[in-house]
Design goal:
The structure holds 2 protein chains of 2 kinds. Chain A folds into 3 domains: 2-100, GAF domain (Beta-Lactamase), CATH 3.30.450; 122-264, Alpha-Beta Plaits; 271-361, Arc Repressor Mutant, subunit A (Orthogonal Bundle), CATH 1.10.10. In chain A, α1 packs across α3 and α10 packs across α11. Chain A has helices spanning 2-14, 44-49, 83-116, 125-131, 152-162, 192-212, 231-248, 262-267, 271-281, 292-303, 308-315, 319-333, 340-361, and strands spanning 19-23, 28-31, 54-57, 60-67, 70-78, 140-147, 169-173, 178-184, 217-221, 254-256. By secondary structure, chain A is α+β, with helices and mostly antiparallel strands. Chain B folds into 2 domains: 4-234, P-loop containing nucleotide triphosphate hydrolases (Rossmann fold, 3-Layer(aba) Sandwich), CATH 3.40.50.300; 241-362, Nucleic acid-binding proteins (OB fold (Dihydrolipoamide Acetyltransferase, E2P), Beta Barrel). Chain B has 10 helices and 20 strands. In chain B, the strands form 4 sheets. In chain B, strands 6-7-8-3-9-10 form a 6-stranded mixed sheet, sandwiched between helices. A 5-stranded antiparallel sheet of chain B has the order 13-12-11-14-20. In chain B, α2 crosses α3 (108-122). Chain B is elongated, with a radius of gyration of 25 Å. The chains are: A alpha+beta, B alpha+beta. At the A-B interface, α5, α6, α10, α11 and α13 of A face β2, β6 and α2 of B.
Amino acid sequence: MEEIKKCMRQAKLILPKNVGVMDTNGLIVAATNEEIDGTTDSSARAVMLSEDMFSSTSGKTYMKIAIGEQIKYIIFIDGIEPEVRIYLELLAQWIKSAIKERGTDADRELFTKNVLLENELPGDIPLKAREYKIDYSTPRLVMVIRTLEDEAIDALEVLQNYYSDASYASVLAMDETTLIIILNAARVDSSEKERDQFIEDASKAVLDVLNNESISVYIGVGSIVPVFQNISKSYRDAMLALRVGKVFEQDRFISRYDKLGLGRLIYQLPPTLCQMFIDEVFPNEAYGTLDEDTITTIESFFANNLNGSETSRELYVHRNTLVYRLDKVKRNTGLDLRSFDDAVLFKMASMVRVYLDYLSRGKDNMIR
Amino acid sequence: MASLSFQHVYKKYEGGVVAVSDFNLEVADKEFVILVGPSGCGKSTTLRMLAGLENISEGEIYIEDRLINDVLPKDRDIAMVFQNYALYPHMTVYDNMAFALKLRKMSKDEIKRRVTEAAKILEIEHLLQRKPKALSGGQRQRVALGRAIVRDPKVFLMDEPLSNLDAKLRVQMRVEITKLHHRLKTTFVYVTHDQTEAMTMGTRIVVMKDGFIQQVDSPTELYDNPVNTFVAGFIGMPPMNFIEGLIAVEGSDVYVTFENISVKLPERYAVEEVMERDGQQVIFGVRPEALTDETTFVSDHPEASFVADVDVVELLGAETYLYVTVNGSLPLTCRVDPTTSQSVVGESVDLAIDTNRVHLFDKDTEQSIIS
């Protein structure tokens, strides 16, 4: 229906008379006079019963439009003089073209989804891309947007309006909670800094525009790929970023494939190996013996680069309290966090532990 | 219009990271509250929990008397304005402002009424048919505010909304937002890292650090009676001078000594909390404006005066900043009167401390010694 509304918006700027489109029951789906959108025209029944293509009544002229073999719409215009029929005929052709184009859009969207999911034969992709007027050799970036089921439709509408220029970005709904943005990255040059800035700005803009409409989302950002065929790789990267981010970057709403850090490494490890590592570093579930204050202290101690004075200042505890807590960690786990090697071991083991927790909880219990 | 209540709110992540700790705050209806603090202090996380964009790990948040922990963001009756205006580039200003209402399936007449009204409040009626690229930074900011106003929310949430503007425009928009608050008579919660914004706009300020509330007070109270060195150093520009000193008690007199200088403190410091620290180290806090080179004041207060070397003199028109060094090792900043100051770079200057405006902090905990 959007394509018909778009025609009406443009017709309003061109035609000197009010025109509109209704369904065969008389419900006006779009009109240059927006006030009558959604109202019903009682003449529809008479128009449909008439054997003529054109009918005139109550100062208006009506024309039936067939899509394929079936009458689908009735268009109308103010006035009954002969020249208004020319306007209606032109308008009918315009609307038919727009509807046909819409059909092509749906096919193009399906093709793009198939490329993302690697359901197209690689050799067919360049040819089909040309058929659907997709510029094959434009660099692109894929972002995966994960939202709540209740908010996905609004999120899709927001993003489609934000990226209304199809040559710049395509927005697709993959399932009831996942949206995909395929962004044209042609204007980004090859410098690392500019690519980084482009990804940063683009992902931040998506987050802000959705948050602004009170829609909470998590975003996985893939890598920039040189040709259309490789959007499947960018999509895979974005999905991985989203999953790794869910485990290791819970305080962030944007996870970038090129900035996954240690999480990238740990995420690839087999769970049995992770468990062996945990059993070695934290034997007898030693980590579980640490209370909340101690864990907060450890996080702060790491954040302050193992600097005791800074940590005690930050936590508003006496330095002796800090020393006591660090001694307790040493007693319970055998690791002295004041030593760099032990600190590294503790940090890695606590990340592995978070990963194992995530596996045991089940993977899809959050919106990303 | 609504009151807010945060009760023991925490934001914790798996693995032990705590972004917000035991956040308790009551915000009265129509209040303009500012959350301020350095990057990573938890202020944006708190705002996002209020907005529903982030889950609450523990505790409860109420808007009026309604518990909103599990309410969807769009059903919380709030509106947010971000640093990034996030305007729809292909829509007119009117359509940008109307978009959120269209999403909520509001009638066209009501949308038109609300957009017109908001445009009038923001004085952007003449811009309604323009597209965002044809607007200046300030005008875009107004449109972003307009998008929030049309929702007629109970609470406005703003997350660093002025950070994208240049310094001059920021000052202008600061005034505009304050006026808007008076006009709309609605509760505002505003997040910023800029202490000047906080001091000039808020009726109350919440200073945060590392997920903890440090102090909640009016701008004047925060400035005059900071509870710890963090608040004292964060609020005020140039920041407070912190001097490591020793408490010396002689009879009923209390002195702070540093760099072979002994400064006698006023009688209000002759209290148990200070006297019991005789011989102990403290942090002596002196705001730049409590240090003066005014000759009459210096000669009238020999018990609080000393000599320093002038390193830099910054003339700012209405005031002058002196950057001086005491005994070649203690750097201090002074805010002096340009009409009376005769300080010259490279020469020494006689300075005196206005001891009625100084602060004492515990050296270990960094908390204020006298509340």
